[in-house]
Amino acid sequence: MPRSKNKVASRERRRKMLKHAKGYWGARSKVWTIAKHHIEKGWQYAYRDRKAKKREFRSLWITRINAAARLNGLSYSKLMHLLIQKNIEIDRKMLADLAMNEPAAFAKVVEMAKS
After folding, report:
1. Residue of 63, 77, 57, 68 lying closest to 109 (CA atoms)
2. Each residue of 98-115: pLDDT tens digit?
3. CA 10, 11, 15 angle in degrees (round to 5)?
């Protein structure tokens, strides 16, 4: 008796993976083994970069806060230290947004921290 391979299910699995490869160039979107390799590699990059994105944004926020703080006569580290001492709980994302879009409001926050 011949071995049963369930061609319907395996074909469906391949079709589903090739659907993920849509838009890839050349054999990457057509040939099963090559497409599979590139899809899986892409998923690895996506997983890694979801973590890296968080680090990159925090770094960007710190850079923006530092630039705005220096315009107001403080360094980033001194500003953060003063904010912690005064129990002013504004996270870096909000501080960076203030620094970029509302410089006057950011200056008030710095003055509150200094006083």
Report:
1. 68
2. 999 999 999 999 999 998
3. 120
The DSSP symbol for 22 reads T
The values of phi and psi at residue 57, to 5°, are: -65, -40
Residue 59 has pLDDT above 90, yes or no: yes
CA distances from 101 to 68, 97, 104 (A): 11, 6, 9
| Residue 53 to residue 22: CA distance in whole angstroms | 25
pTM check: above 0.85: no
- Span 13-24, mean pLDDT? 93
Query: Which DSSP state fits 73?
Result: T
Q: What is the DSSP letter of 3?
A: P
Residues 6+ apart with CB under 8 A from 21: 28, 29, 35, 38, 39
Q: Could you give all domains of the chain from N- to C-terminal order, each with its CATH number?
A: 8-114 (1.10.1900.20)
